[in-house]
């Protein structure tokens, strides 16, 4: 992608200031996160000494990183390292996987990367880990069972991968929250886009880090072959989950209003899908 096109997509300004969103391109996943989090004041702006942190990547599918179905393990590891350097007491990594969880955790590369970086890996495969929560502003989804780590940890870092999805068109930050709940099938059968927006109105990550290093541009969310994946070498980070998804949608060539749950969440006031009024830092490595 040419620099001019990149700047046109994200707009904003690169002057030193407080940013609503940071978009980085051209580096490896770890380096891009280093640059992005520094631009937001460093990880200590979000993680304080002795706090517990939960990191929720997409670890849904039994496949290697090259297939682009799961979050890049190098990115997960770097976020863990930053959190521990900030003094976090414990950093947990988990997902409620689609495929069998032990194989998925292992073959995605995320289990080893997270453990090597100092995190604790937690399973998401037992209903006993999930507790009923009222979705106070939900239009369709009125309550749901949420994993206890999301409810009990001091800091929640949401780390989705950008890719296509047969049901929701794209899966990014808001869709990645499916995996912190127990019954994902109910969402699919009861207005998926509204349920995604409803859940995001209640379950709010501290920070959203969108992995767009390898992007599955077709046949998502699992993919068929390596030909489904393109290297975009990009990363988007924001406290605003809707803005993060809007920017990621534009990166893959979609307008935010084309994605039902982004449009609905913006209308509900969950976040901002109109990027024109945001302070955005664009970094090219």
- Which bin fits the share of residues in helices? 25-40%
Query: What order do the helices and strands follow?
Result: HEHEHEHHEEEHEEEHHHEEHHE
The tally of beta strands, per DSSP, is 12
Quaternary state reads: single chain
Distance between the termini: 13 Å
Average pLDDT over all residues? 94
Largest sheet: 10 strands, mixed
Q: Radius of gyration, rounded? A: 17 Å
Shape: globular
List the uncertain runs.
11-16
- CATH architecture tag: 3-Layer(aba) Sandwich
Whole-number tally of structural domains: 1
* Class inferred from helices and paired strands: alpha/beta
- Give me the CATH fold name: Rossmann fold
Fold and architecture overview:
This protein has 285 residues and is α/β, with parallel strands linked by helices. The chain has one domain (3-284): Rossmann fold (3-Layer(aba) Sandwich), CATH 3.40.50. It is built from eleven helices and twelve strands. It has helices at 3-10, 29-39, 73-85, 101-107, 110-117, 148-152, 173-176, 184-189, 192-202, 241-251, 260-267; strands at residues 21-25, 52-57, 90-93, 120-121, 130-134, 143-147, 155-159, 161-165, 169-171, 207-216, 229-238, 280-284. Strands 1, 2, 3, 4, 7, 8, 9, 10, 11 and 12 form a ten-stranded mixed beta sheet that branches. β5 (130-134) and β6 (143-147) form a beta hairpin. It starts with a helix and ends with a strand.
């Amino acid at each position: 992608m040419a620099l001019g096109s990149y700047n046109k997509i994200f707009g904003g300004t690169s002057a030193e200031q407080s940013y609503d969103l940071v978009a980085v391109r051209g580096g490896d996943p770890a380096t891009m996160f280093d640059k992005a989090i520094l631009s937001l004041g460093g990880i200590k702006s979000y993680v304080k000494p002795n706090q517990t942190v939960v990191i929720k990547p997409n670890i849904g599918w039994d496949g290697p990183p090259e297939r682009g179905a799961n979050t890049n393990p190098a990115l997960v590891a770097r976020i863990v390292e930053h959190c521990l350097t900030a003094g976090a007491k414990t950093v947990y990594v988990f997902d409620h996987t689609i495929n069998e969880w032990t194989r998925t955790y292992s073959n995605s590369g995320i289990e080893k990367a997270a453990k090597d970086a100092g995190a604790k890996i937690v399973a998401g495969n037992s209903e006993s880990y999930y507790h009923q929560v009222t979705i106070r502003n939900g239009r369709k989804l009125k309550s749901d069972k949420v994993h206890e780590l999301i409810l009990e940890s001091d800091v929640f870092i949401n780390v989705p991968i950008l890719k296509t999805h047969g049901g929701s068109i794209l899966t990014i930050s808001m869709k990645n929250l499916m995996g912190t709940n127990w019954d994902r099938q109910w969402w699919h059968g009861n207005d998926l886009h509204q349920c995604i927006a409803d859940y995001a109105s209640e379950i709010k990550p501290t920070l959203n880090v969108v992995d767009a290093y390898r992007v599955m541009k077709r046949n998502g969310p699992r993919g068929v072959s390596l030909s489904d994946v393109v290297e975009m070498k990009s990363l988007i980070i924001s406290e605003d989950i809707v803005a993060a998804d809007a920017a990621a949608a534009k990166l893959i060539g979609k307008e935010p209003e084309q994605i039902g749950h982004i449009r609905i969440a913006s209308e509900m006031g969950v976040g901002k899908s109109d990027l024109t009024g945001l302070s955005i830092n664009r970094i090219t490595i």
